[in-house]
User: What shape does this take?
Amino acid sequence: MAARALDARRSRWLLLAWAVAIFALSAVTDPGTLAVLAVVAGAVFARGAGAVLRRVLVTVVPFVALLVGASWAWMRLVVGVAPDGQAYAALVLRAALLAFVTFAVMRRVDLLGALAGWPTASRLAVLTLAQVHALRLVATESWQGLQSRLPRRPGAVDAVRGAGGVTGALLTLSTRNAREVTDALRSRGF
Amino acid sequence: MHVPDGFLSPLVTLPAYAAATPLWALGVRRHFGSAQVEALPVLGSLTAVAFVIQTLMIPIPGGTSTHLLGVPLLALRYGPLAAFVAESLVLVLQALLLGAGGVTVLAVNALAMGLIGPSAGWLLHRVLRPVHAGAAAFLGAAVALPVAAAVVAGVLGLQQRLDPSYFPGPLPVVAAALLLPAVLAGLLEGAYTLVAMRLLGRVRGGAGA
Assistant: This one.
């Protein structure tokens, strides 16, 4: 279950504390200290920690681990000696810890409420999120269109073949959508 | 080619924020203010397209990933500052929603992929446009990615010189890993930008008809 969002003032304070904390955490290089800090972060954000941890393990850790593993292997290939694994392990741990703290804070804050004092920031956030949502819809429709045109389940090759057309459709539709947004902004006195 | 959170120390990330902040203020005022009612939604749309394009990342050795940017198109149409702000928005969304890149490294990533790379493309486009508009768009976008990759490699190399306990790869090793994929992705970026410029021109033309 999602944590209840704080009010705008408290959200602003939590965002400020988060900004300081993540820069401080990004300065820690010792894996032991990072492990202790991970336990502390888990205790501080205990409510909903399981869901946040799952999200970190699904979205951040595999990508960073793959990247770090590839970098380790590349270094070994180029230099000819297996590099010390401790720094690479610390990289994965640090990236995971920063993502955990970020996701945990984002669950608790009312981001748009916190940005309400800065109209331009709110406008940018709303506009971009709305467009991302519109594009998700268009991409889903395009994928469904591709599925309906093929007698079998579309594979990677079909997706690549259709990617040009889908990108074209995305651009055309989003530009038309942008025109409607312009009219809406005008009608609201912008 | 996002540098993930935790790969750079505050010794690198904080000066990058100091350099980026005034440019963000200038870019937002110039391109994303309430006076830009006409351009704002198109910028929002192209930013969203860039968000979708950049989500398809391929991890590569050297501490980062390779992918298309989408924002050189914005630089060619609206100028490098518009691309810089748009790229920063993409990076904020990716960091907060997907955990890609990150907030501490935001300024470094934005300066490399949103400003320096697209600025190089924008300059080349301006020089070549009188000769051939299509070639200028293709080459302008194609050059943005390798330039951005070179900046990212330089920053990771600098971090290794400052404190190897962060990212242990030295500059030549990192640059070798980053540049070839960036050149190849740059060619795709050029093709995407060329097609997108033509499509946008056609949509605009259609609106006036």
